[in-house]
Design a protein that fits this description.
heterodimer, A: 117 residues, mainly beta, 6-stranded mixed sheet, globular, B: 109 residues, 5-stranded antiparallel sheet, 56% strand
Chain lengths: 117, 109
């Protein structure tokens, strides 16, 4: 596709259930980011994938959160045993870094709105 | 200390005025700096990026970077009601792109 695609766009789940959120980055983009945005708040960094390098997981808030990126393309963010405080919009972005000192625009998907009831 | 700090606002300016948005960052090794705009209910979109100290102009927008002071700003000249949005400052550290909480700008006609 032409842009970053996320699915589902909305997800309502019961407290304690596991959820999986999917991100299809722009074709050819080697960098992929996951962020969480709670109502009225900024973007909270969760995890960063770049090519075959080990991901930067420093933003994951607890061990209930995990993410993987298969084949350097599609990524899945998994939240286990969901809690009400996990309710937020989860945004994925991709970019095509062009060297150690340069960077290019990160393009965002439309997000997945997660509601835990 | 948060990695990227912004005044949450709201910043209110009349139409045609200059809006000044500010951002400070803590990682002195940061090399790339970005300003994103986010309309309510929408995803962020890039306005400008800057790598070098000094000013960078693009139309009505000017980004300013002072690495010694660890300070980035965005000036919007001739502000329009359509500029009303949340402006997010982002800093690229060695790996991740870290965002501030954003400043809400309201331009009144």
């Amino acid at each position: 596709g032409a842009g970053v695609s996320q699915s589902p766009s909305n997800k309502v789940t019961e407290k304690g259930k596991d959820v999986e959120l999917r991100c299809d980055p722009i074709s050819g983009h080697t960098a992929l980011y996951w962020y969480r945005q709670s109502l009225g708040q900024g973007l909270e960094f969760l995890i960063y994938f770049q090519g075959n390098s080990a991901p930067d997981k420093s933003g994951l808030p607890s061990d209930r959160f995990s993410a993987e990126r298969t084949g350097g393309s599609v990524s899945t963010l998994t939240i286990q045993r969901t809690q009400q405080e996990d309710s937020a919009v989860y945004l994925c972005a991709s970019s095509s870094p062009q060297g150690a000192s340069a960077d290019t625009e990160a393009f965002f998907g439309q997000g997945t709105r997660l509601t835990v009831v | 200390q948060k990695e990227v700090e912004q005044n949450s606002g709201p910043l209110s300016v009349p139409e045609g005025a200059i809006a000044s948005l500010n951002c400070t960052y803590s990682d002195r090794g940061s090399q790339s700096f970005f300003w994103y705009r986010q309309y309510s209910g929408k995803s962020p979109e890039l306005i400008m990026f800057i790598y070098s100290n000094g000013d960078k102009e693009d139309g009505r927008f000017t980004a300013q970077l002072n690495k010694a002071s660890q300070y980035v700003s965005l000036l919007i000249r001739d502000s329009q009601p359509s500029d009303s949005a949340t402006y997010l400052c982002a800093v690229k550290r060695r790996t991740a792109l870290i965002f501030g909480k954003g400043t809400t700008l309201s331009v009144s006609s």
